[in-house]
Design goal:
By secondary structure, the protein is of the alpha+beta class. 32% of the residues lie in helices and 26% in strands. It has three helices and six strands. It has helices at 2-20, 26-33, 45-52, and strands at 24-25, 57-62, 72-76, 80-85, 88-94, 101-102. It has a four-stranded antiparallel beta sheet, with no helix packed on it. Strands 1-6 form a two-stranded parallel ribbon. The longest helix is centred in the N-terminal third of the chain and has 19 residues, at 2-20. The termini are far apart. The relative contact order is 0.18. The mean pLDDT is 77.
């Protein structure tokens, strides 16, 4: 009798894991693709443009109202968005690829 009680939650967990496996986590895709494909922190805008070409979209700059708030520029490429402080890369975020993928929403315009 105790064995049945212990096995029931395990079976329920296995049944739920099958449904969750249909979704792809954005972080899993990024880890599989490797970070070598993304711009590196500290690269200049010219280096990013030379390697990846023109961005599909250049979003309006944010910040810069005070000296303590540096201007942040954002360039959107099909697979990722690059964040620049002044003219240097400070971060790169992979874009959500499809409706089945769980990850960040598109950048705010």
């Amino acid at each position: 009798m105790k064995l049945r009680i212990a096995v029931a939650p395990l079976l329920a967990l296995l049944a739920l894991s099958g449904a969750a496996s249909a979704e792809t986590l954005l972080i899993e895709r990024v880890q599989q693709e490797g970070k070598a494909l993304l711009p590196a922190r500290g690269q200049s805008m010219d280096q990013v443009k030379a390697r990846y070409g023109e961005p599909t979209q250049r979003l309006d700059a944010r910040g810069g109202q005070k000296r303590a708030w540096p201007q942040i520029n954002r360039w959107v490429y099909p697979a990722f968005t690059v964040y620049f402080e002044k003219s240097r890369v400070i971060d790169v975020v992979a874009n959500k690829a499809g409706t089945e993928e769980i990850g960040p929403k598109p950048p705010i315009l």
